Amino acid sequence: MTVALHPNERAALRRRRAPDPWRLWREAAVIAAPITLVLAALIAATLAWSGAFALGGGTPPQTRTAGSPTQSSPGSGTTGTAALPAEPAGRLMPASAAATGVTPAAPFSLRSASALDRARATECLTAALYYEAVSEPDDGLRAVAQVVLNRVRHPAFPASVCGVVYQGVERGQGGCQFSFACDGATTRVPVRSGWARAARVAAAALGGYVYAPVGLATHYHTYAVTPAWNRTLVMTDVVGAHFFHRWKGFWGTAAAFHQRYAGSEPALGPAPRLATPVIALNHPVAVAPLTPAAIPATQVQPAFRDSGTPLKPQPAPAPAPESQILERWKNSGKPLR
């Protein structure tokens, strides 16, 4: 017996028998969805740990065991950290300590320094600005200068400009607070225009100019690195390629910056890096010997004035003539004893 199907039923039957080209894709998507979510979670966790997700790239942070001091040498593009002194007993936390605003630093002064110490401070600060931020705009230089001067006033750091800039050079490679002082950057001869620009910014900062946007920042690092200490600090500003930070709690407040300027600058410099000269000659150079004509006559005693002139060649002595004295008379001219 044949049963006639309604046209709609025949159409539905044809659709069920026809192959579905998207069925395999849908089944694959259902299977792959959980795997994709798990991989995405792992990648996001890895990026968040390394800091690359937050800063757009960088290196994994330095590991530090619990309870160890926050003192470590900086990597390229970052300042180092310093162990904090104990907080003064009985000192009350200022009400502004919990505020999220930025407190500008007080103007710096070199009034107590001698002319020699002023020159040393200017040279040390200029070197720090040049080798750390010469590629930055003027605000980038001003921000780095403010960090240096903030450190001079903080009891965790030396009380002089040169002492802050070259802190740790006595420990050699890996001990400097500012990476340029240990990584050999100072072996590059400065560009005259860049050095002059850094010197102008340094002189202004030492003369009392305050770069307020970074506030009381004592640390900075470039966007290319992620030091471990940046998680324990408070970011105050981003200027050019640098991120600036201050300490949390009392040591990051204006009341903590009470250290007095020492008034004298130590004669410090970068750590030695190269055993060979910076500029090597590709070919030997002839050196002319020193001649008497190159020495002033007043510096040579008259008895020796002509002693440095070349000797004229002398003819070889003639051979002695053969003796004509008879053998028995050869010793007759000797004196009597």
UniProtKB/TrEMBL annotation:
One GO MF term attached to the UniProt entry: hydrolase activity
Transmembrane domains' residue ranges: 24-49
Stretches assigned to the Cell wall hydrolase SleB domain: 135-244
Keyword annotations: Hydrolase, Membrane, Transmembrane, Transmembrane helix
Official protein name in the record: Cell wall hydrolase
Record's compositionally biased regions (Low complexity): 65-86
Region (Disordered): 60-86, 299-337
Pfam family, one: Hydrolase_2
